[in-house]
Amino acid sequence: MKTEDLSKVRIAVLGKVNVGKSALTVRYLTRRFIGEYRSNADLLYRQTVTINNSPLEVEIIDVSGETRDSFPSDQICWADGCIIVYSLIDKESFDYAVSTLQNLQRHRAVNNVPVMLLANKLDLEHLRQVRQK
Asked: Contact 76/29 with Cβ under 8 angstroms?
């Protein structure tokens, strides 16, 4: 089956720099953990998965948080769903995630776009800066 014949879903992974967006994405795609990433560019990953005996092409854009002063509206408009990642050991990353969610609500009809807020680095609980409520 040709790639253009496949059903497709596009996911944008958003968040502040160093929260683990790339590590989560690569872990999903390869089942491997790689701890060191240095990226100041958006990265696009593709993988074909089978759901209910039908192939589905998954495209994931890992949106760099390196020098992001403005809301990544092009990447958001491209996506069918968004994952906003923050680190439990970085309070500023949580604030950034909340701000990103608020911006997303202003830029798109959230009712039509699945959004997931994902806490990362739970294994570093002893360094937690984001408190549970």
From this structure: no
Task: Give the helix ranges, DSSP H, for the chain.
Answer: 21-30, 73-78, 91-107
Exposed / middle / buried, residue 23 (Cβ in 10 Å: 0-12, 13-18, 19+): buried
- How many CB atoms within 10 Å of residue 19? 28
Q: What is the pTM of this model?
A: 0.82
Question: What proportions of the chain, in percent to the nearest 5, are helix, strand and coil?
Answer: 35, 30, 35
What band does 15 get if pLDDT is binned at 50, 70 and 90?
very high
CATH number of 8-127: 3.40.50.300
